[in-house]
């Protein structure tokens, strides 16, 4: 079985900011197979969002030996930061639920999701109303983001990500602003994506991820005198 995404020799770096030490993450290898459910856990600032941005072809690495997406070698594009070419591939293959933002303020929830569907160029896209019903926001489809609560906006972003029918779904803290009931509802909707969809979800709620069958992967920080190094540790218990 061919991987949906695979990388080798990744190095991510952040310069010092607000008095903090420089940060780096070294990932020798990472593979995302069809149907995988990976839950990223770790303290705030450990690098979960930075790693998701790389998987989403948004951030530019300090070093990268190889990255393939849906069977295509995109290493050169990622190294060079070819935004347009990477955006086209992201739209076709990846649904990305951001922790903040991601919704165009002048469009309704429905129109935001329809736009994502159009960019994906897929013909087998799931129904918006059904997904919105699962998320508990069906009655808000024709509202603009400014007219939603924080939790409703978060679920609208999940709707946008799921609406593409992408084979890779990435989500950065999709349950952060939700109570237990709506967090469970949101994870249930995410994990009801089409069979074979691979998903990576970052969360501070490891017990909930484990409840929905995610294999946990911890981002652990090592504090050295001159820098902080993040390590990706798979198979971490909740």
End-to-end distance:
29 Å
Major sheet characteristics:
10 strands, mixed
Kindly report the name of the CATH homologous superfamily.
P-loop containing nucleotide triphosphate hydrolases
Q: Indicate the overall shape.
A: globular
Q: What is the spatial order of strands in the main beta sheet?
A: 5-4-1-2-10-9-3-8-7-6
Q: Which segments are poorly predicted (pLDDT under 50) over 5 or more consecutive residues?
A: none
Tally of DSSP β-strands: 10
List keywords for this structure.
238 residues, alpha/beta, ten-stranded mixed sheet, globular
Characterization of this structure:
The protein is 32% helix and 26% strand. The protein has 238 residues and is an alpha/beta fold. It has a single domain (5-234), classed as P-loop containing nucleotide triphosphate hydrolases (Rossmann fold), CATH 3.40.50. A 10-stranded mixed sheet has the order 5-4-1-2-10-9-3-8-7-6, sandwiched between helices. Strand 4 and strand 5 (72-73) form a beta hairpin. It is globular and about 50 Å long. The two termini are 29 Å apart.
């Amino acid at each position: 079985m061919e991987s949906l995404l695979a990388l080798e020799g990744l190095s991510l770096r952040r310069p010092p900011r607000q008095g903090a030490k420089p940060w780096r993450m070294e990932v020798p290898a990472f593979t995302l197979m069809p149907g995988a459910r990976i839950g990223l856990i770790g303290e705030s600032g450990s690098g979960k969002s930075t790693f998701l941005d790389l998987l989403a072809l948004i951030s530019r690495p300090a070093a990268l030996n190889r990255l393939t997406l849906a069977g295509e070698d995109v290493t050169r594009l990622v190294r060079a930061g070819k935004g347009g070419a990477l955006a086209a591939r992201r739209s076709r293959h990846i649904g990305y639920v951001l922790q903040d933002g991601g919704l165009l303020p002048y469009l309704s929830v429905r129109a935001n999701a329809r736009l994502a569907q159009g960019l994906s160029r897929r013909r087998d896209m799931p129904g918006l109303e059904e997904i919105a019903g699962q998320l508990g926001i069906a009655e808000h489809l024709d509202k603009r983001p400014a007219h939603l609560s924080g939790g409703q906006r978060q679920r609208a972003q999940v709707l946008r990500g799921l609406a593409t029918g992408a084979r890779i779904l990435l989500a950065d803290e999709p349950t952060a602003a939700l109570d237990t009931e709506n967090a469970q509802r949101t994870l249930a909707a995410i994990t009801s994506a089409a069979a074979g969809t691979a998903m990576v979800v970052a969360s501070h709620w490891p017990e909930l991820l484990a409840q929905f069958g995610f294999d946990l992967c911890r981002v652990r920080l090592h504090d050295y005198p001159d820098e902080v190094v993040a390590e990706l540790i798979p198979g971490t218990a909740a």
